[in-house]
């Protein structure tokens, strides 16, 4: 068994939510690196809502996966065999390692982690999640102290960071979440100024109550009815940061906002962004966020799932909301 590896391939395109037929776990001979390549053993696999979008038949910001193709995924891991001086054995890297125990990579395809970098944090607050929150908020949302920021999926990986960074920048922050436990965490542990249980409360009334002067920035992780409700209550000069639309990722025909005319009335802006464009500047986000993590003033919750075989199940959690924090799969134990 030592010279084999396991990986998921896309077997069937999901119609709606993914199910047991979508991804198939296969065992293959373990590949050896050719000249210029390294073999990486995946340690942490990041489970991201966008994994679902890559299963659709149409190209998105990345090409659509072909049927039978290995499932893409962001991860961190350790080089265990190498034919390139740029990635010596023992080096830790992050990048598109796939839903797989091992990956063959070239140096230009991955980021090498520093000797003191925690490989788990590199798929969370000090990796693409932190960069999404930091650049999306500061460069797309552009908050000013005193403004009111509404964040959807605020108890999730990205939302919880956005909410806390906005607080640090002097904003009033309202978060939405889908369970009592998540709402309590937002209020008690993160100290948000208001929380809305979007499954229980009427959205229009709840937003108006928490943001009587309107919403200056709406951070959208979900789309759907929440986006419409937020658009209807934008303040003059409001900004809608389109980060994601998870409520639409399983839909055959995603539904757009009906309340978009409020953008005109309120001279407001709605803008999408992709963290990929900011990854070359990752260090800027890390140097802002790192000290807050270290001094404990920025909290980050994890939902750890054990073993590659459970990766599809872990992806399902993002859509049911039955997780508390960033969903990661521990594919292998630590060597450091
Ligand atoms: N633009 C970019 O570059 C970029 C980068 C990273 C992430 N994103 C996007 O950011 C969003 C959050 O990603 P994440 O990784 O941080 O995941 P996450 O927030 O940790 O998990 C997803 C959360 O979405 C909520 N949700 C699921 N289905 C929903 C529905 N139908 N309506 C409302 N809420 C629903 C659930 O929270 P509740 O239990 O509270 O409902 C769930 O916990 C996603 O849309 C993702 O695609 C974008």
Strand elements, count:
15
Q: Separation of termini?
A: 24 Å
Largest sheet: 7 strands, mixed
Strand content: 25-35%
Question: Percent range for helical residues?
Answer: 10-25%
CATH class of the largest domain: Alpha Beta
The unique ligands bound to this protein are: NADP nicotinamide-adenine-dinucleotide phosphate
Q: Helix tally?
A: 9
Global geometry: globular
Low-confidence stretches: none
Count of the domains = 2
The second-level CATH architecture of the largest domain is 3-Layer(aba) Sandwich
Structural class: alpha/beta
Average pLDDT for all residues: 97
User: Mind telling me the CATH superfamily name of the largest domain?
Assistant: NAD(P)-binding Rossmann-like Domain
* Succession of helices and strands: EEEHEEEEHEHEHEHEHEHEHEHE
Question: Radius of gyration, rounded?
Answer: 20 Å
Write down the CATH topology of the largest domain: Rossmann fold
Give an overview of the whole structure.
The structure is a single chain. The mean pLDDT is 97. This protein has helices at residues 50-53, 128-141, 157-168, 180-189, 203-210, 224-231, 262-265, 282-294, 311-320; strands at residues 4-10, 23-29, 38-46, 74-82, 92-96, 102-105, 110-112, 148-151, 172-177, 194-197, 215-220, 234-242, 269-272, 302-306, 326-330. It contains nine helices and 15 strands. It has 336 residues and is of the alpha/beta class. Helix 2 (128-141) crosses helix 3 (157-168) and helix 2 packs across helix 8 (282-294). Strands 3, 4, 5, 6, 7, 14 and 15 form a seven-stranded mixed sheet that branches. The chain has two domains: 4-119 and 301-330, Quinone Oxidoreductase, Chain A, domain 1; 128-276, Rossmann fold (3-Layer(aba) Sandwich), CATH 3.40.50. Helix 3 (157-168) links the parallel strand 8 (148-151) and strand 9 (172-177). The longest helix has 14 residues, at 128-141. NADP nicotinamide-adenine-dinucleotide phosphate (NAP) binds at residues 48-50, 132, 153, 155-159, 177-179, 182, 221-222, 224, 243-247, 273-275, 318-319, 321, 323, 326.
